[in-house]
Amino acid sequence: MGRKWNNIKEKKANKDANTSRIYAKFGIEIYVAAKQGEPDPESNQALRFVIERAKTYNVPRHIIDKAIDKAKGGSDENYAELRYEGFGPSGSMVIVDALTNNVNRTASDVRAAFSKNGGNLGVTGSVNYMFDETAVIGFEGKTADDVLELLMEADLDARDILEEEDSVIVYAEPDQFHAVQEALKSAGITEFTVAEITMLPQNEVTLSGDTLTQFEKLIDTLEDLDDVQQVYHNVDLEG
Questions:
Q1: CB–CB of 186/38 below 8 Å?
Q2: 83-126, pLDDT tens digit by residue?
Q3: Three-state SS annotation for 158-182
């Protein structure tokens, strides 16, 4: 699978470091998760998942607490969860997940991002089938063999376990995310470099030259939209 998750996460964090955009996006996601269920991560699995992922991006605790408190306070602000599927330059595939309080605005912004950067929006299902929803958990301090053994002892399966640079990355079924993470915590792993459920392309494509530049601009434009939470694609940007 080899998506070099730590490098991808670091680039996103560095890109947003000066604007705190990443904190604002996590604040919305935490608020939505807390409002849809109990505002307590112990009883709200969705909220616990978002908080675990926020920690890997070093989101300050006060941002997390503020979002939860907003949900506890009975705020009537509502967000819709949207997924857009589209094609970038040279038939590259892109999935965009958004949380918005203005559906028309978001749809217009996402459509404009595609059309101005050599792409176009597709219909629902036009791209999604070429991706697999996958839990990705990364950490340091263990070998792949160590992790395989401890997961077997916990009667858990993984799609793959890889050593990438100084980290071990576990790829698992989405519904196994919490069980795998808890097994790792029981084995003494307390910090995670990656902890998320993502969309992995079944096949990656390579772009070059002006086409690659145009594609990177498309992704940057989409990620800069305030309503966009996640962007997934099938282009190998690390090749």
A1: no
A2: 999 999 998 999 999 999 999 999 999 999 999 999 999 999 99
A3: CCEEEEECCEEEEEECHHHHHHHHH
CA distance 178 to 154: 13
What interhelical angle do 5-16 and 209-224 show, nearest 10?
A: 60
Quick: pLDDT tens for 166-207.
Answer: 889 999 999 999 999 999 999 999 889 889 999 999 999 999
Backbone angles phi and psi of 94, in degrees to 5? -135, 135
What token pair was written down for 235?
């282009």
Specify the length of the chain in residues: 239
Element (H, E) at 132: strand 131-139
- The number of CA neighbours under 13 Å toward the Cβ of 134 is 25
Average pLDDT, the chain: 89
Asked if 223 and 186 count as a contact pair (C-beta separation under 8 A), the reply is: no
Q: Which residues contact 134 (CB under 8 A, 6 or more apart)?
A: 159, 171, 172, 173, 174, 197, 198, 199, 200
Instruction: Quote the radius of gyration of the chain (alpha carbons, Å).
Output: 18
